């Protein structure tokens, strides 16, 4: 223990002493360049993990939820606009994106330990995973949905009477958010037996 304390003291003394052979200008420019390199590397890594290719690189996502997505209007439609995994599961604003990436680091832990590495394990955990995602979307007022869908741009006259009424009375007045009514819009619903409200 004593050796560790001595090592920490030496390390701290070295760090806290002024540089003898380096100018302040060199340290400032060097710090700036190091900061730019760190930021560029960090942002590049974050964007690389924010692609559909990254999301479906593991078979858990590719063989389960991605296959389900391919059968929905979010994947193939008349307008040719396609939502990718990050569009629905990662906020677009930088601060919200960072917070979501920090939450997702916990999901990596589950991948490492094979929590859902078989179809059977995935199905056994589907309700828990869905509830987690629904809660996240309810908490952030379906932020990811609103990145593409805007109630100001909705033409309620083009919707079914039931949908138009729901959007007019519940979405616009704020009593509900998108995910409250649109669970299962891009993925199969889990077994909802015993779930309150179903």
Description of the structure:
This protein is mostly helical and 198 residues long. The chain has a domain at 59-181. It has 10 helices and no strands. The protein has helices at 2-16, 24-48, 52-55, 59-69, 85-89, 94-112, 119-139, 143-148, 161-171, 178-181.
Outline of the structure:
The chain is mainly alpha-helical and about 200 residues long.
Features:
198 residues, mainly alpha, 61% helix
Describe the protein's topology:
Blueprint lengths: L1 H15 L7 H25 L3 H4 L3 H11 L15 H5 L4 H19 L6 H21 L3 H6 L12 H11 L6 H4 L17
Strand share of the residues? under 5%
Count of individual beta strands: 0
**Helix/strand class:** mainly alpha
- Our count of helices gives 10
Average pLDDT figure: 88
* Percent of residues in helices: 55-70%
Q: Rough shape?
A: elongated
């Amino acid at each position: 223990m004593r050796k560790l304390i001595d090592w920490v003291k030496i390390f701290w003394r070295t760090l806290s002493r002024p540089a003898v052979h380096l100018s302040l200008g060199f340290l400032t420019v060097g710090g700036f360049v190091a900061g730019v390199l760190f930021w560029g590397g960090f942002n590049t890594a974050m964007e690389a993990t924010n692609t559909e290719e990254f999301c479906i690189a593991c078979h858990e996502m590719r063989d389960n939820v991605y296959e389900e997505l391919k059968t929905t209007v979010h994947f193939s439609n008349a307008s040719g606009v396609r939502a990718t995994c990050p569009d629905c599961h990662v906020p677009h604003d930088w601060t919200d994106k960072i917070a979501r990436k920090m939450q997702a680091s916990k999901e990596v832990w589950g991948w490492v330990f094979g929590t859902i590495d078989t179809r059977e394990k995935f199905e056994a955990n589907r309700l828990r995973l869905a509830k987690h995602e629904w809660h996240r979307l309810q908490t952030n007022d379906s932020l990811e949905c609103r990145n593409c869908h805007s109630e100001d741009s909705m033409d309620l006259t083009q919707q079914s009477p039931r949908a138009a009424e729901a959007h007019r009375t519940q979405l616009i007045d704020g009593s509900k958010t998108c995910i409250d009514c649109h669970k299962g819009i891009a993925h199969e619903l889990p077994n909802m037996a015993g779930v309150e409200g179903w």
